[in-house]
TrEMBL record:
The lineage of its organism: Bacteria, Bacillati, Actinomycetota, Actinomycetes, Micromonosporales. This is ATP-binding protein. Pfam families: DUF3107 (PF11305).
Length: 75
């Protein structure tokens, strides 16, 4: 699954490919917003961790990873 994180004052969004379900990512975001630490921490498919201060979040987009076909198809 693909998670896009918009960070204030950053020219590009962060893109994380996560093995977590959309519900798990949504729960992590909500918990980070309500926690005292105010830190969002997500882990990608390779075990790398992305940590973002909640007060710098602009948006979090959660989407299923789309596989793209290459070449021509006969219709």
């Amino acid at each position: 699954m693909e998670v896009k994180i918009g960070v204030q004052f950053a020219p590009r969004e962060l893109v994380v490919e996560s093995a977590q379900s959309p519900a798990e990512v949504e729960k992590a975001v909500i918990e980070a917003l309500n926690s005292e630490s105010k830190i969002l921490s997500l882990e990608d498919e390779k075990g790398r961790r992305v940590i973002v201060p909640v007060d710098k979040l602009a948006y979090v987009e959660i989407a299923e990873l789309v596989t793209r076909t290459v070449g021509f198809t006969a219709g």
